[in-house]
Amino acid sequence: MDLEIRAEDPLSFSDSEELDENGFPLASSSGSDKAESTSEPTSCNDDRPHKKLSEFASDFYASGSDCTSLLRIRNEKKNGLLVQKNLLQMWGIAKSEVAETSESRVCTENRKRKWKGKEQGDDFGLNQKKNEKGKKSAHVQSRSCPFYKKIPGTPFTVDAFRYGAIEGCSAYFLTHFHYDHYGGLTKRWCHGPIYCTSITARLLDICLSVNQSYICALEYDKEYEIEGIKVTFIEANHCPGAALIHLRLSDGRTYLHTGDFRASKSMQSHPILLNYHVNVLYLDTTYCNPKYRFPSKEEVIAFVVRTTQKYLQKQPKTLVVVGAYSIGKERVYLEISRSLQVPIYTNASRRRILESFGWSDLSSRLSNSSHSTRLHVLPLSFLRLENLNKYLATLNQRFNAVLAFRPTGWTFSEATGSKLDLIKPTSKGNITIYGVPYSEHSSFNELRDFVKFLRPDKIIPTVNASSIASRDNMQALFNNWLKS
Protein backbone atom coordinates (compact mmCIF):
# COMPACT_ATOMS: atom_id res chain seq x y z
CA MET A 1 0.00 0.00 0.00
CA ASP A 2 1.42 3.38 -0.96
CA LEU A 3 2.32 5.90 1.71
CA GLU A 4 0.12 8.98 1.69
CA ILE A 5 1.53 12.34 2.78
CA ARG A 6 -1.03 14.35 4.71
CA ALA A 7 -1.08 18.13 4.84
CA GLU A 8 0.40 18.10 8.35
CA ASP A 9 3.10 15.60 7.42
CA PRO A 10 6.57 17.15 8.03
CA LEU A 11 7.72 15.65 4.71
CA SER A 12 5.40 17.81 2.66
CA PHE A 13 6.60 21.13 1.33
CA SER A 14 5.38 24.20 -0.44
CA ASP A 15 5.31 24.50 -4.22
CA SER A 16 7.09 27.81 -3.77
CA GLU A 17 10.04 26.23 -1.98
CA GLU A 18 13.34 26.87 -3.76
CA LEU A 19 14.87 23.82 -5.43
CA ASP A 20 18.47 23.01 -6.28
CA GLU A 21 19.67 21.92 -9.74
CA ASN A 22 18.61 18.34 -9.06
CA GLY A 23 15.03 19.29 -8.24
CA PHE A 24 15.54 18.92 -4.49
CA PRO A 25 14.57 21.53 -1.86
CA LEU A 26 17.46 23.66 -0.61
CA ALA A 27 18.57 22.81 2.92
CA SER A 28 17.16 25.04 5.63
CA SER A 29 19.43 27.56 7.34
CA SER A 30 17.28 27.70 10.43
CA GLY A 31 18.72 27.19 13.87
CA SER A 32 17.64 23.59 14.07
CA ASP A 33 19.64 22.86 10.95
CA LYS A 34 22.94 24.45 11.95
CA ALA A 35 24.69 21.18 12.58
CA GLU A 36 24.42 20.33 8.89
CA SER A 37 24.99 23.77 7.40
CA THR A 38 28.31 25.41 6.59
CA SER A 39 29.95 27.77 9.03
CA GLU A 40 30.22 30.49 6.42
CA PRO A 41 27.16 32.04 4.81
CA THR A 42 26.72 31.49 1.07
CA SER A 43 25.50 34.47 -0.91
CA CYS A 44 23.71 34.36 -4.23
CA ASN A 45 26.69 36.09 -5.83
CA ASP A 46 29.25 33.73 -4.35
CA ASP A 47 31.11 31.83 -7.08
CA ARG A 48 31.97 28.96 -4.74
CA PRO A 49 29.87 25.77 -4.81
CA HIS A 50 26.76 26.06 -2.65
CA LYS A 51 27.46 23.68 0.20
CA LYS A 52 23.88 24.06 1.40
CA LEU A 53 22.49 22.23 -1.61
CA SER A 54 20.60 19.01 -0.99
CA GLU A 55 22.68 15.85 -0.56
CA PHE A 56 19.64 13.68 -1.28
CA ALA A 57 20.82 12.33 -4.64
CA SER A 58 24.37 11.63 -3.51
CA ASP A 59 23.06 9.96 -0.35
CA PHE A 60 20.88 7.73 -2.47
CA TYR A 61 23.73 6.58 -4.66
CA ALA A 62 25.93 6.01 -1.61
CA SER A 63 23.35 4.02 0.32
CA GLY A 64 23.57 0.67 -1.45
CA SER A 65 21.02 -0.83 -3.78
CA ASP A 66 18.22 -0.93 -1.22
CA CYS A 67 15.57 1.51 -2.45
CA THR A 68 13.95 1.58 0.99
CA SER A 69 17.14 3.04 2.42
CA LEU A 70 16.15 6.18 0.57
CA LEU A 71 13.23 6.51 2.98
CA ARG A 72 15.48 5.86 5.97
CA ILE A 73 17.90 8.55 4.86
CA ARG A 74 15.04 10.94 4.44
CA ASN A 75 13.72 10.27 7.92
CA GLU A 76 17.15 10.63 9.51
CA LYS A 77 17.63 14.13 8.13
CA LYS A 78 16.57 16.86 10.50
CA ASN A 79 13.26 18.52 9.61
CA GLY A 80 12.74 15.90 6.90
CA LEU A 81 13.62 18.44 4.21
CA LEU A 82 15.44 16.19 1.78
CA VAL A 83 12.51 15.13 -0.36
CA GLN A 84 12.48 14.91 -4.16
CA LYS A 85 9.10 15.92 -5.52
CA ASN A 86 8.89 13.96 -8.72
CA LEU A 87 10.40 10.85 -7.17
CA LEU A 88 7.66 10.84 -4.53
CA GLN A 89 5.02 11.34 -7.17
CA MET A 90 6.44 8.56 -9.34
CA TRP A 91 6.51 6.17 -6.41
CA GLY A 92 2.90 6.93 -5.48
CA ILE A 93 3.72 8.75 -2.26
CA ALA A 94 2.17 12.00 -3.45
CA LYS A 95 -0.11 12.94 -6.29
CA SER A 96 1.39 14.91 -9.12
CA GLU A 97 0.23 18.50 -9.38
CA VAL A 98 2.61 19.48 -12.13
CA ALA A 99 1.05 19.77 -15.55
CA GLU A 100 2.60 18.03 -18.53
CA THR A 101 4.88 20.31 -20.49
CA SER A 102 3.41 21.48 -23.78
CA GLU A 103 4.78 19.88 -26.93
CA SER A 104 5.40 23.37 -28.18
CA ARG A 105 8.07 24.13 -25.57
CA VAL A 106 10.19 26.99 -26.85
CA CYS A 107 13.95 27.20 -27.04
CA THR A 108 15.24 29.91 -24.73
CA GLU A 109 18.25 32.17 -24.49
CA ASN A 110 21.66 30.90 -23.32
CA ARG A 111 20.91 27.21 -24.13
CA LYS A 112 24.07 26.42 -26.02
CA ARG A 113 25.16 22.80 -26.08
CA LYS A 114 28.43 21.35 -27.33
CA TRP A 115 29.45 17.75 -27.68
CA LYS A 116 32.73 16.17 -28.73
CA GLY A 117 32.94 12.64 -30.07
CA LYS A 118 36.07 10.59 -30.44
CA GLU A 119 35.79 10.75 -34.21
CA GLN A 120 33.54 13.72 -34.78
CA GLY A 121 32.75 17.10 -33.30
CA ASP A 122 30.27 19.84 -33.85
CA ASP A 123 28.89 22.90 -32.20
CA PHE A 124 25.26 22.52 -31.22
CA GLY A 125 24.78 26.20 -30.56
CA LEU A 126 21.13 26.97 -30.03
CA ASN A 127 19.96 30.26 -31.45
CA GLN A 128 17.46 32.19 -29.47
CA LYS A 129 13.99 31.74 -30.92
CA LYS A 130 11.81 34.77 -31.53
CA ASN A 131 8.17 35.10 -32.42
CA GLU A 132 6.92 36.83 -35.55
CA LYS A 133 7.07 40.22 -33.85
CA GLY A 134 10.72 39.75 -32.95
CA LYS A 135 10.05 39.45 -29.24
CA LYS A 136 11.71 36.86 -27.05
CA SER A 137 9.60 33.79 -26.46
CA ALA A 138 8.36 33.40 -22.93
CA HIS A 139 9.53 30.67 -20.59
CA VAL A 140 7.16 27.75 -20.22
CA GLN A 141 6.88 26.10 -16.81
CA SER A 142 8.69 22.76 -16.97
CA ARG A 143 8.83 19.62 -14.88
CA SER A 144 12.03 18.93 -12.97
CA CYS A 145 13.94 15.93 -14.28
CA PRO A 146 14.12 13.22 -11.58
CA PHE A 147 17.62 12.38 -10.42
CA TYR A 148 17.30 8.72 -11.43
CA LYS A 149 17.27 9.83 -15.09
CA LYS A 150 20.55 11.68 -14.59
CA ILE A 151 23.85 9.79 -14.60
CA PRO A 152 25.89 10.94 -11.56
CA GLY A 153 29.24 12.54 -12.34
CA THR A 154 28.27 13.19 -15.96
CA PRO A 155 26.31 15.78 -17.96
CA PHE A 156 24.19 12.90 -19.33
CA THR A 157 20.52 12.00 -19.03
CA VAL A 158 18.84 8.82 -20.30
CA ASP A 159 15.32 8.72 -21.82
CA ALA A 160 14.51 12.11 -20.25
CA PHE A 161 13.02 14.10 -23.13
CA ARG A 162 9.71 15.10 -21.57
CA TYR A 163 11.52 17.56 -19.25
CA GLY A 164 12.72 19.93 -21.98
CA ALA A 165 16.11 21.59 -21.51
CA ILE A 166 17.67 20.04 -18.41
CA GLU A 167 20.06 22.19 -16.42
CA GLY A 168 23.58 20.81 -16.58
CA CYS A 169 22.78 18.29 -19.34
CA SER A 170 24.80 18.49 -22.54
CA ALA A 171 24.06 14.99 -23.89
CA TYR A 172 20.64 13.34 -24.08
CA PHE A 173 20.70 9.56 -24.56
CA LEU A 174 17.82 7.57 -26.06
CA THR A 175 17.90 3.80 -25.48
CA HIS A 176 15.27 2.88 -28.11
CA PHE A 177 12.28 4.09 -30.10
CA HIS A 178 9.33 3.27 -27.86
CA TYR A 179 7.11 6.12 -26.74
CA ASP A 180 7.59 5.64 -23.01
CA HIS A 181 11.28 6.36 -23.64
CA TYR A 182 11.26 8.99 -26.41
CA GLY A 183 8.16 10.85 -25.15
CA GLY A 184 8.79 14.60 -25.37
CA LEU A 185 10.78 14.44 -28.61
CA THR A 186 9.23 16.30 -31.52
CA LYS A 187 10.41 18.18 -34.59
CA ARG A 188 10.75 21.20 -32.28
CA TRP A 189 13.49 19.59 -30.19
CA CYS A 190 16.36 22.05 -29.77
CA HIS A 191 17.82 21.39 -26.33
CA GLY A 192 20.94 19.43 -27.23
CA PRO A 193 22.39 16.42 -29.05
CA ILE A 194 20.52 13.11 -28.92
CA TYR A 195 22.74 10.02 -28.79
CA CYS A 196 21.19 6.80 -30.09
CA THR A 197 21.80 3.90 -32.47
CA SER A 198 21.61 4.33 -36.23
CA ILE A 199 18.22 2.58 -36.49
CA THR A 200 16.76 4.79 -33.77
CA ALA A 201 18.27 7.83 -35.49
CA ARG A 202 16.47 7.00 -38.74
CA LEU A 203 13.19 6.51 -36.86
CA LEU A 204 13.56 9.91 -35.18
CA ASP A 205 13.87 11.40 -38.65
CA ILE A 206 11.11 9.57 -40.52
CA CYS A 207 8.57 9.31 -37.68
CA LEU A 208 9.09 12.50 -35.67
CA SER A 209 10.97 14.75 -38.12
CA VAL A 210 13.51 15.64 -35.43
CA ASN A 211 16.12 18.07 -36.76
CA GLN A 212 18.96 15.87 -37.99
CA SER A 213 21.57 18.28 -36.70
CA TYR A 214 20.67 17.14 -33.18
CA ILE A 215 20.77 13.40 -33.91
CA CYS A 216 24.07 11.67 -33.17
CA ALA A 217 24.09 8.02 -34.28
CA LEU A 218 26.56 5.69 -32.56
CA GLU A 219 27.48 2.20 -33.68
CA TYR A 220 27.15 -0.87 -31.51
CA ASP A 221 30.28 -2.20 -29.77
CA LYS A 222 32.36 0.84 -30.62
CA GLU A 223 33.79 3.01 -27.89
CA TYR A 224 33.25 6.78 -28.11
CA GLU A 225 34.49 9.52 -25.87
CA ILE A 226 31.82 12.09 -25.07
CA GLU A 227 32.50 14.86 -22.56
CA GLY A 228 35.53 12.89 -21.33
CA ILE A 229 33.45 9.74 -20.67
CA LYS A 230 33.86 6.43 -22.49
CA VAL A 231 30.53 5.39 -24.02
CA THR A 232 29.69 2.05 -25.65
CA PHE A 233 26.35 0.82 -26.99
CA ILE A 234 25.58 -2.90 -26.68
CA GLU A 235 22.75 -4.76 -28.43
CA ALA A 236 19.81 -4.92 -25.99
CA ASN A 237 17.88 -7.83 -27.57
CA HIS A 238 14.68 -5.79 -27.26
CA CYS A 239 13.38 -4.02 -30.37
CA PRO A 240 15.38 -2.97 -33.44
CA GLY A 241 17.83 -0.23 -32.48
CA ALA A 242 17.60 -0.79 -28.72
CA ALA A 243 20.85 -0.45 -26.79
CA LEU A 244 22.39 -1.00 -23.40
CA ILE A 245 24.48 2.05 -22.51
CA HIS A 246 27.86 1.32 -20.89
CA LEU A 247 29.61 4.34 -19.36
CA ARG A 248 33.14 4.58 -17.94
CA LEU A 249 33.99 7.74 -16.05
CA SER A 250 37.47 9.19 -15.71
CA ASP A 251 37.49 8.40 -11.97
CA GLY A 252 37.01 4.69 -12.68
CA ARG A 253 33.29 4.45 -11.94
CA THR A 254 31.26 2.34 -14.39
CA TYR A 255 27.54 2.50 -15.06
CA LEU A 256 25.32 0.25 -17.16
CA HIS A 257 21.86 1.42 -18.19
CA THR A 258 19.80 -1.37 -19.75
CA GLY A 259 16.92 0.73 -21.05
CA ASP A 260 14.50 -2.05 -22.00
CA PHE A 261 16.25 -5.35 -22.71
CA ARG A 262 16.02 -9.12 -22.75
CA ALA A 263 19.07 -10.57 -21.07
CA SER A 264 20.74 -13.43 -22.92
CA LYS A 265 23.67 -15.76 -22.41
CA SER A 266 25.53 -14.01 -25.22
CA MET A 267 25.68 -10.84 -23.10
CA GLN A 268 27.73 -12.74 -20.53
CA SER A 269 30.49 -13.20 -23.10
CA HIS A 270 30.54 -9.56 -24.23
CA PRO A 271 34.11 -8.26 -23.73
CA ILE A 272 33.16 -4.94 -22.17
CA LEU A 273 30.82 -6.58 -19.63
CA LEU A 274 33.45 -9.19 -18.83
CA ASN A 275 36.31 -6.72 -18.38
CA TYR A 276 34.73 -3.85 -16.41
CA HIS A 277 33.02 -4.18 -13.04
CA VAL A 278 29.67 -2.35 -13.00
CA ASN A 279 29.25 -0.03 -10.01
CA VAL A 280 25.66 1.01 -10.71
CA LEU A 281 23.19 -1.00 -12.78
CA TYR A 282 19.99 0.69 -14.01
CA LEU A 283 17.89 -2.43 -14.53
CA ASP A 284 14.74 -3.05 -16.60
CA THR A 285 12.61 -4.83 -13.97
CA THR A 286 9.43 -5.24 -16.02
CA TYR A 287 9.14 -8.93 -15.12
CA CYS A 288 11.07 -8.98 -11.84
CA ASN A 289 8.63 -11.39 -10.24
CA PRO A 290 9.15 -15.16 -9.75
CA LYS A 291 5.87 -15.94 -11.51
CA TYR A 292 7.24 -14.68 -14.86
CA ARG A 293 9.40 -17.63 -15.88
CA PHE A 294 8.34 -17.61 -19.50
CA PRO A 295 10.08 -19.58 -22.25
CA SER A 296 12.71 -18.28 -24.64
CA LYS A 297 11.91 -16.35 -27.80
CA GLU A 298 13.02 -19.32 -29.87
CA GLU A 299 10.64 -21.71 -28.11
CA VAL A 300 7.68 -19.38 -28.59
CA ILE A 301 8.46 -18.78 -32.27
CA ALA A 302 8.70 -22.54 -32.85
CA PHE A 303 5.27 -22.96 -31.23
CA VAL A 304 3.75 -20.20 -33.37
CA VAL A 305 5.12 -21.71 -36.59
CA ARG A 306 4.02 -25.22 -35.57
CA THR A 307 0.50 -24.02 -34.70
CA THR A 308 0.21 -22.10 -37.96
CA GLN A 309 1.18 -25.08 -40.06
CA LYS A 310 -1.30 -27.29 -38.20
CA TYR A 311 -4.19 -24.84 -38.76
CA LEU A 312 -3.41 -24.48 -42.45
CA GLN A 313 -3.52 -28.22 -42.89
CA LYS A 314 -7.08 -28.21 -41.52
CA GLN A 315 -8.21 -24.99 -43.20
CA PRO A 316 -6.00 -23.90 -46.14
CA LYS A 317 -7.94 -20.65 -46.59
CA THR A 318 -6.90 -19.28 -43.18
CA LEU A 319 -5.63 -15.72 -42.80
CA VAL A 320 -2.69 -15.56 -40.38
CA VAL A 321 -2.42 -12.33 -38.37
CA VAL A 322 0.37 -11.25 -36.04
CA GLY A 323 -0.13 -8.32 -33.67
CA ALA A 324 2.81 -5.98 -33.23
CA TYR A 325 3.82 -2.56 -31.97
CA SER A 326 5.13 0.05 -34.42
CA ILE A 327 8.50 -1.60 -33.85
CA GLY A 328 9.06 -4.92 -32.12
CA LYS A 329 7.88 -8.55 -32.63
CA GLU A 330 9.46 -8.65 -36.10
CA ARG A 331 11.03 -12.07 -35.54
CA VAL A 332 7.62 -13.67 -35.04
CA TYR A 333 6.15 -12.78 -38.42
CA LEU A 334 9.49 -13.06 -40.19
CA GLU A 335 9.79 -16.71 -39.13
CA ILE A 336 6.20 -17.43 -40.22
CA SER A 337 7.01 -15.86 -43.59
CA ARG A 338 10.12 -18.01 -43.95
CA SER A 339 8.27 -21.16 -42.94
CA LEU A 340 5.28 -20.64 -45.25
CA GLN A 341 7.27 -18.94 -48.00
CA VAL A 342 4.75 -16.12 -48.23
CA PRO A 343 5.13 -12.31 -48.23
CA ILE A 344 4.24 -10.11 -45.25
CA TYR A 345 1.47 -7.55 -45.71
CA THR A 346 1.57 -4.35 -43.60
CA ASN A 347 0.21 -0.87 -44.11
CA ALA A 348 2.39 1.81 -45.69
CA SER A 349 3.54 3.46 -42.46
CA ARG A 350 4.72 0.18 -40.95
CA ARG A 351 6.48 -0.80 -44.19
CA ARG A 352 8.36 2.49 -44.14
CA ILE A 353 9.51 1.79 -40.59
CA LEU A 354 10.52 -1.80 -41.33
CA GLU A 355 12.42 -0.80 -44.46
CA SER A 356 14.39 1.76 -42.43
CA PHE A 357 16.02 -1.07 -40.44
CA GLY A 358 18.13 -2.01 -43.43
CA TRP A 359 17.36 -5.73 -43.03
CA SER A 360 17.37 -7.06 -46.59
CA ASP A 361 15.64 -10.36 -45.74
CA LEU A 362 12.75 -8.53 -44.07
CA SER A 363 12.45 -5.75 -46.65
CA SER A 364 12.35 -8.24 -49.54
CA ARG A 365 9.35 -10.02 -47.98
CA LEU A 366 7.13 -6.95 -47.49
CA SER A 367 4.00 -6.55 -49.60
CA ASN A 368 1.72 -3.58 -50.20
CA SER A 369 -1.27 -5.72 -51.20
CA SER A 370 -3.55 -7.24 -48.57
CA HIS A 371 -4.80 -9.75 -51.17
CA SER A 372 -1.36 -11.01 -52.19
CA THR A 373 -0.56 -13.01 -49.05
CA ARG A 374 -2.14 -14.89 -46.16
CA LEU A 375 0.22 -13.28 -43.60
CA HIS A 376 -0.82 -9.86 -42.28
CA VAL A 377 0.67 -7.69 -39.51
CA LEU A 378 -1.78 -5.52 -37.58
CA PRO A 379 -1.54 -3.36 -34.44
CA LEU A 380 -1.45 -5.45 -31.29
CA SER A 381 -4.35 -3.49 -29.79
CA PHE A 382 -6.51 -4.32 -32.83
CA LEU A 383 -6.49 -8.06 -32.17
CA ARG A 384 -9.99 -8.58 -30.81
CA LEU A 385 -12.60 -11.04 -32.03
CA GLU A 386 -15.02 -8.42 -33.35
CA ASN A 387 -12.26 -6.41 -35.05
CA LEU A 388 -10.81 -9.43 -36.81
CA ASN A 389 -14.24 -10.54 -37.96
CA LYS A 390 -14.78 -7.12 -39.59
CA TYR A 391 -11.26 -7.19 -41.07
CA LEU A 392 -11.91 -10.61 -42.61
CA ALA A 393 -15.02 -9.23 -44.29
CA THR A 394 -12.93 -6.60 -46.12
CA LEU A 395 -10.90 -9.27 -47.94
CA ASN A 396 -13.68 -10.26 -50.36
CA GLN A 397 -14.03 -13.87 -49.18
CA ARG A 398 -10.44 -14.70 -50.09
CA PHE A 399 -10.13 -16.31 -46.63
CA ASN A 400 -12.61 -18.30 -44.58
CA ALA A 401 -10.98 -18.06 -41.14
CA VAL A 402 -8.50 -16.04 -39.09
CA LEU A 403 -5.68 -17.39 -36.91
CA ALA A 404 -4.15 -14.54 -34.89
CA PHE A 405 -1.25 -14.31 -32.45
CA ARG A 406 -0.81 -11.76 -29.67
CA PRO A 407 2.90 -12.04 -28.79
CA THR A 408 3.52 -10.46 -25.37
CA GLY A 409 4.91 -11.60 -22.05
CA TRP A 410 1.76 -10.44 -20.30
CA THR A 411 -0.09 -13.43 -21.75
CA PHE A 412 2.14 -15.81 -19.76
CA SER A 413 0.36 -18.21 -17.42
CA GLU A 414 2.05 -20.03 -14.54
CA ALA A 415 -0.30 -22.95 -15.14
CA THR A 416 1.02 -23.32 -18.68
CA GLY A 417 4.63 -22.40 -18.00
CA SER A 418 6.90 -23.65 -20.76
CA LYS A 419 4.32 -26.19 -21.96
CA LEU A 420 3.13 -24.01 -24.79
CA ASP A 421 0.92 -26.68 -26.31
CA LEU A 422 -1.34 -26.25 -23.27
CA ILE A 423 -2.21 -22.67 -24.28
CA LYS A 424 -5.94 -22.33 -24.86
CA PRO A 425 -6.87 -19.81 -27.55
CA THR A 426 -9.84 -17.48 -27.55
CA SER A 427 -12.24 -18.52 -30.30
CA LYS A 428 -15.56 -17.42 -31.71
CA GLY A 429 -16.87 -18.83 -34.95
CA ASN A 430 -14.06 -18.76 -37.50
CA ILE A 431 -11.82 -16.39 -35.51
CA THR A 432 -9.08 -17.79 -33.24
CA ILE A 433 -6.64 -15.73 -31.18
CA TYR A 434 -3.62 -17.17 -29.38
CA GLY A 435 -1.92 -15.18 -26.64
CA VAL A 436 1.70 -16.36 -26.70
CA PRO A 437 4.37 -15.37 -24.13
CA TYR A 438 6.81 -13.89 -26.60
CA SER A 439 8.54 -11.14 -24.66
CA GLU A 440 11.21 -8.63 -25.54
CA HIS A 441 11.87 -8.03 -21.84
CA SER A 442 13.87 -10.33 -19.57
CA SER A 443 12.11 -13.16 -17.77
CA PHE A 444 12.63 -13.52 -14.03
CA ASN A 445 15.27 -16.21 -14.48
CA GLU A 446 17.10 -14.16 -17.11
CA LEU A 447 17.19 -11.13 -14.80
CA ARG A 448 18.57 -13.27 -11.98
CA ASP A 449 21.30 -14.76 -14.17
CA PHE A 450 22.25 -11.34 -15.56
CA VAL A 451 22.57 -9.77 -12.10
CA LYS A 452 24.55 -12.75 -10.77
CA PHE A 453 26.89 -12.43 -13.75
CA LEU A 454 27.47 -8.67 -13.35
CA ARG A 455 27.39 -8.56 -9.53
CA PRO A 456 27.00 -4.74 -9.46
CA ASP A 457 27.52 -2.64 -6.32
CA LYS A 458 24.10 -1.04 -6.69
CA ILE A 459 20.93 -1.86 -8.60
CA ILE A 460 18.39 0.83 -9.47
CA PRO A 461 15.12 -0.69 -10.78
CA THR A 462 13.60 1.37 -13.59
CA VAL A 463 10.18 -0.34 -13.82
CA ASN A 464 7.48 -1.21 -11.26
CA ALA A 465 9.11 0.84 -8.51
CA SER A 466 5.97 2.85 -7.75
CA SER A 467 5.18 1.22 -4.40
CA ILE A 468 7.14 0.51 -1.25
CA ALA A 469 6.07 -3.14 -1.32
CA SER A 470 7.30 -3.61 -4.89
CA ARG A 471 10.65 -1.99 -4.12
CA ASP A 472 11.08 -4.09 -0.98
CA ASN A 473 10.29 -7.29 -2.86
CA MET A 474 12.75 -6.50 -5.64
CA GLN A 475 15.44 -5.53 -3.16
CA ALA A 476 15.05 -8.82 -1.32
CA LEU A 477 15.48 -10.62 -4.63
CA PHE A 478 18.57 -8.58 -5.54
CA ASN A 479 20.18 -9.26 -2.17
CA ASN A 480 19.49 -12.98 -2.50
CA TRP A 481 20.94 -13.14 -6.00
CA LEU A 482 24.11 -11.31 -4.99
CA LYS A 483 24.68 -13.53 -1.97
CA SER A 484 24.62 -16.78 -3.92
Automatic annotation (TrEMBL):
CDD domains xrefs: SNM1A-1C-like_MBL-fold
Family the entry assigns: Belongs to the DNA repair metallo-beta-lactamase (DRMBL) family.
Stored Gene3D superfamilies: 3.40.50.12650, Ribonuclease Z/Hydroxyacylglutathione hydrolase-like
InterPro entries for the chain: DRMBL, RibonucZ/Hydroxyglut_hydro
GO CC entries: nucleus
A biological-process GO annotation: double-strand break repair via nonhomologous end joining
DNA repair metallo-beta-lactamase domain mapped to chain residues: 362-466
Region Disordered, residue ranges: 1-49, 109-138
Keywords: DNA damage, DNA repair, Nucleus
Location of the protein in the cell: Nucleus
Protein name: DNA cross-link repair protein SNM1
Molecular function as annotated in GO: 5'-3' DNA exonuclease activity; damaged DNA binding
Ranges annotated as biased composition (Polar residues): 27-44
Superkingdom classification of source: Eukaryota
